[in-house]
Specification:
The complex is a heterodimer of chains A (157) and B (398). Chain A is α/β, with parallel strands linked by helices and 157 residues long. Chain A has a domain of 101 residues: 2-Layer Sandwich (Beta Polymerase, domain 2). Chain A is built from three helices and seven strands, in the order αββαββββαβ. Chain B is mainly α and 398 residues long. Chain B has one domain: Cytochrome-c3 Hydrogenase, chain B. In chain B, β2 and β3 form a beta hairpin. The interface between A and B is large, with 38 and 42 residues.
Chain lengths: 157, 398
C-alpha cells in the first residue's frame, strides 16, 4: 500500500463515498491507519468490504489499545486484508473510558465474533449487538480486565 | 459455571454433551459443547482458555529481545515460525535491514518447521481416524528435523534461534549435511504416507465430504493457511506479500477445490513437498556473509569483540540491561505459519518494552469455523473436523 496518504486509493475512495467518515489518517512504515468516526463505522466497513477495487473481505484481526490515562482511553484496532489486491488496512475507532462500548462488526465480518469476545474479556469493552458476548479466555467470575494498563502484571492479590 | 448451550423448549429429548477438555482427540485442552439428536450434532459451541497464560500482558513487561522466548511457547509445534513473526515485526518497527545469509537460513528453518508441524498434524489426524502406523512414521521423520533444530539452536522445541537483527549464532559446521540427508530421504517418505492414506477406502470414507466449508464462508470466518486453500482460495502470504526473501524462491501454492477434510489433507501433503523444494533451493544457493544486521545499538556484538573493544562492551551492557529504543509507531507483520496467517501487531511508545504486542493467532481464528464444520454431521465426524483445522491450543489461548 502506498504510504503517501494524499494519493492513497483506499482513502480517496472512502472520502468520496462518505466525506465525514475518516477522522484522521496516518502512515508509518508503509502501513496506513484510518481513524473512523464511530457513527459512520459500519457503513464505511460495508463499503470497504464490497467496493470493487478494494474488497477488504478478510478481517484478519480485531484488538484494542489502552492509552490510560489519556482520554478517550481506548482505541479499537481492526486489521483488514483484501485477498484480491493483497492490500492491508488498519482501521481505528476511539472509545471513551466511561462505560466503554462500541457496535459489533459481526454482521459485516462473521470472523469478528471471537476477536470481539477476546477484547471484551481482556479490555472490558462491550460490543452492542454481539450474538454471544461472554468471557472467552478467562473464567466467567474473573475480576477485572487484564490487558488494561491499570491491571497489575501479577494480577490482584 | 463453564459455558453451556441453552435448551430449546420442546426439544428436551436432545442430549447436551460436554466433550473435553481432556479428550485425546482435541489435541490439547479444548472443550466442546455439543447438542445431539441421536448421533447427529445439531448445535456446537467451543470453550477455550484452559491454557491462557497472558502472553500479551507479559510482552509489556519484557524488552523486545526477551519477548522472543515467549513466542516459542505459543505455537509449540512451530516455534521458529513464531520467532520469525516476532522478529520481523520488531525489525519492521526499527527499520532494520537483514543480511541475505540470515534471511535464507530463516527461510530454510521455517520451511523445515512447516514440514515437522504438518507431520505432527498428519500423524495425529490419522490416528484420530484410526490409522495407527502413519502416526509412528510421521514422528520418526519429525525427530530428524528436531535434531537439526537442536544442532543449530541447542533446543529441540523452544528454539528462540532467530533474534532481532538476524540469528543467534552461526549454525555449526556440518549441519547442512544433516539437512541434505533428510531432504534426500523425505520425498520417498511422503510417498509412503500417501500410499497408506490417499487412496485408502477407509480414509476416503472418513474424510471425503466431511467438514465442508465453501470459499466464501472460509473467508468470512477468517480461515487462513491450508484450511483456506483447501477450499480453493489461492492465497499464500509467502507469494502475495513476500517477506524474508521468499520472492527469490520457486514454489507452488498448494490449493485444492474440495473444501472438505480430504481436500485440506491433500493441500497439506502437497505443501510438505513444496516446502522441501524451498529447503533444497535454500541449501543450494545459501549466500555467504554476516548473519546479523550492522546495527551495534540493537544487535549484540560477538563474544570476541565484546572482550577486546570497549565500545562493543558498552553496547552489550546497554542492550542487556536496558534494551533498545524503537521509534514511536505501530506495525502489523503477518507471516504464513504452518497454520495460516500469524500476525504480530506491535505498538511502540519509544521505550525499550513494547507498549502492546498482540498476536493474531491462526488457530484462534480457524477455530471459529469449527461449529460450522460439525453442525449437522455425525458425532464421529467431530474428531475429523478438529484434526482438519490443525489447531494448537497454546496459540489459541495464548
Amino acid at each position: 500500500m502506498t504510504s503517501n496518504l494524499e494519493t492513497n486509493p483506499t482513502l480517496l475512495k472512502l472520502r468520496e463515498f462518505d466525506p465525514a467518515a475518516v477522522e484522521d489518517a496516518r502512515a508509518f512504515r508503509g502501513e496506513v491507519t484510518l481513524y473512523l468516526k464511530p457513527v459512520h463505522f459500519i457503513r464505511a466497513c460495508e463499503f470497504l468490504r464490497d467496493e470493487p477495487g478494494l474488497k477488504f473481505s478478510f478481517l484478519a484481526d480485531v484488538t484494542a489499545l489502552d492509552l490510560y490515562p489519556q482520554e478517550p482511553r481506548f482505541e479499537l484496532v481492526y486489521h483488514l486484508l483484501s485477498l484480491e489486491t493483497a492490500q492491508r488496512l488498519r482501521l481505528k475507532v476511539r472509545v471513551a473510558s466511561e462505560n466503554p462500548r462500541f457496535i459489533t462488526a459481526v454482521p459485516v465480518w462473521p470472523a469478528a465474533n471471537a476477536f470481539e469476545r477476546e477484547v471484551f474479556d481482556l479490555f472490558g469493552i462491550v460490543f452492542d449487538g454481539h450474538p454471544f458476548l461472554r468471557r472467552l479466555l478467562l473464567p466467567e467470575d474473573w475480576e477485572g480486565h487484564p490487558l488494561r494498563k491499570d491491571y497489575p502484571t501479577e494480577g490482584y492479590r | 459455571m463453564p459455558v453451556t448451550l441453552e435448551r430449546i423448549p420442546g426439544k428436551e429429548e436432545r442430549v447436551i454433551l460436554s466433550m473435553g477438555p481432556q479428550h485425546p482427540s482435541t489435541h490439547g485442552v479444548l472443550r466442546l459443547v455439543l447438542e445431539l439428536e441421536g448421533e447427529t450434532v445439531v448445535r456446537a459451541l467451543y470453550d477455550i482458555g484452559y491454557l491462557h497464560t497472558g502472553f500479551e500482558k507479559s510482552f509489556e513487561s519484557k524488552t523486545y529481545s526477551q519477548g522472543i522466548t515467549l513466542t516459542d511457547r505459543m505455537d509449540y509445534l512451530a516455534p521458529l515460525s513464531n520467532n520469525l513473526g516476532f522478529c520481523l515485526a520488531a525489525e519492521k518497527l526499527l527499520g532494520l535491514e537483514i543480511p541475505p545469509r540470515a534471511q535464507w537460513i530463516r527461510v530454510l528453518l521455517t520451511e523445515l518447521t512447516r514440514i515437522q508441524s504438518h507431520l505432527v498434524w498428519l500423524g495425529t489426524h490419522a490416528i484420530d481416524l484410526g490409522a495407527m502406523s502413519v502416526f509412528l512414521y510421521c514422528f520418526r521423520e519429525r525427530e530428524e528435523i528436531l535434531h537439526i533444530f537442536e544442532a543449530v539452536s541447542g533446543q529441540r522445541m523452544m528454539t528462540s534461534y532467530f533474534r532481532i537483527g538476524g540469528l543467534a549464532l552461526e549454525p555449526p559446521m556440518g549441519w547442512l549435511k544433516a539437512v541434505r540427508k533428510f531432504a534426500d530421504r523425505f520425498p520417498a517418505r511422503i510417498d509412503e504416507y500417501e500410499a497408506l492414506l490417499t487412496r485408502n477406502p477407509i480414509w476416503l470414507r472418513r474424510t471425503q465430504g466431511v467438514g465442508y466449508i465453501s470459499a466464501e464462508d472460509a473467508i468470512a470466518y477468517g480461515l487462513s493457511g491450508p484450511s483456506l486453500r483447501g477450499s480453493g482460495v489461492d492465497w499464500d502470504i509467502r507469494k502475495r506479500e513476500p517477506y524474508c526473501s521468499y520472492e527469490e524462491f520457486d514454489f507452488k501454492v498448494a490449493t485444492r477445490p474440495e473444501g472438505d477434510v480430504y481436500g485440506r489433507y491433500l493441500a497439506r501433503v502437497e505443501e510438505m513437498r513444496q516446502s522441501l523444494r524451498i529447503v533444497n533451493q535454500a541449501m543450494e544457493g545459501l549466500p555467504e556473509g554476516p548473519i546479523r544486521a550492522d546495527a551495534p545499538h540493537i544487535v549484540l556484538p560477538d563474544r570476541e569483540s565484546m572482550k577486546t573493544s570497549i565500545e562493543a562492551l558498552i553496547y552489550h551492557f546497554k542492550i542487556v540491561t536496558e534494551g533498545f529504543h524503537p521509534p514511536v509507531g505501530e506495525v502489523y507483520q503477518a507471516i504464513e505459519s504452518p497454520r495460516g496467517e500469524l500476525g504480530f501487531y506491535m505498538v511502540s511508545d519509544g521505550s525499550p518494552k513494547p507498549f502492546r504486542c498482540h498476536v493474531r493467532a491462526p488457530s484462534f481464528a480457524n477455530l471459529q469455523a469449527l461449529p460450522k464444520l460439525i453442525e449437522g454431521r455425525l458425532i464421529a465426524d467431530v474428531v475429523a473436523c478438529i484434526g482438519t483445522i490443525d489447531i494448537v491450543l497454546g496459540e489459541v489461548d495464548r
